[in-house]
Design brief:
The chain is mainly α. It has helices at residues 9-31, 35-51, 63-70, 74-85, 92-97, 100-106, 111-114, 117-125, 128-139, 161-177, 184-195, 201-217, 225-250.
Length: 257
């Protein structure tokens, strides 16, 4: 005869909160491998954890501890939460579809306008330049919260005309591949960061492929299943460390570090 467990209402609520916290945390962890293009997803779920005070349920003593465990830089973490908090009760699909730069721009609108599906969808589909222009037009000279943000400057460098075309085409393609299409200045920043002062993502992928080859060789090594599993775990940990170091370069997209 099957046993039916009936939870006390308080215990049932605690179990429900724990389940919800784990689901949001899982979404954050799944976003980590594509941090540059999934940062709004992180903000969406982290903002809920913060609003409902669920960090403790996950075993973290503070939000700071959770942020460090997430693998995201503090600047990225707090920035995307700040954006998410400006769009309360917005559907996840609408929120994470926005271009991050457009979402920041949309924050200049009063809540009654920025939470409408029309503007949320435009923030997802309009190019950054187009969206900035229409927001400016809509504001019609009104004071904007973003007026205190960092000033925009122009960066230029001399090169042959033929080289300029190749650079522009490559930069556009790179911007698309890392999820910042339409914001070539950020793509350039990421590209420079990728090749200076950090582990190259391309280099990490090459090394990871080498480790995958080693894992495949274990099948014919004659080792026991337990020994193979142990060596596979070591290789996977090394691969994870490589990618974490490489992705560190990309996680400064919003922080400017």
């Amino acid at each position: 005869m099957a046993t039916v467990t009936i939870l006390h209402p308080v215990a049932e609520e605690a179990e429900s909160r724990k389940k919800e916290a784990r689901e949001h945390w899982k979404a954050i962890q799944q976003a980590a491998p594509l941090a540059s293009s999934n940062s709004l997803r992180v903000g969406f779920h982290a903002a809920i954890l913060k609003r409902q005070n669920l960090f403790g349920i996950l075993g973290y003593a503070s939000e700071k501890e959770a942020q460090e465990a997430s693998g995201f830089k503090a600047a990225t973490w707090y920035n995307v939460i700040r954006i998410a908090e400006a769009f309360p009760n917005t559907k996840e699909s609408l929120f994470i579809a926005m271009k991050l730069t457009n979402a920041e721009c949309l924050m200049d609108f009063p809540e009654s306008k920025r939470l409408t599906e029309y503007w949320l969808r435009r923030a997802a589909t309009d190019s950054i330049d187009t969206f900035e222009a229409v927001v400016e037009e809509e504001m019609n000279g009104k004071e904007k919260p973003s007026n205190g943000r960092e000033k925009i400057v122009t960066f230029s460098t001399k090169m042959p005309r033929s080289r300029k075309k190749a650079v522009e085409a490559g930069l556009l393609e790179f911007a698309k591949s890392v999820g910042v299409e339409g914001d070539e200045s950020r793509a350039l920043e990421l590209l420079v960061q990728e090749h200076t002062g950090g582990v190259s993502l391309i280099e990490s992928i090459q090394k990871a492929m080498e480790r995958i080859g080693k894992i495949k060789e274990l099948e014919s090594s004659g080792l026991s299943a337990d020994e193979i599993l142990e060596k596979v775990n070591v290789e996977l940990e090394e691969m994870a460390a490589l990618f974490r170091a490489a992705l560190e370069s990309f996680q400064n997209l919003e922080s400017g570090e």
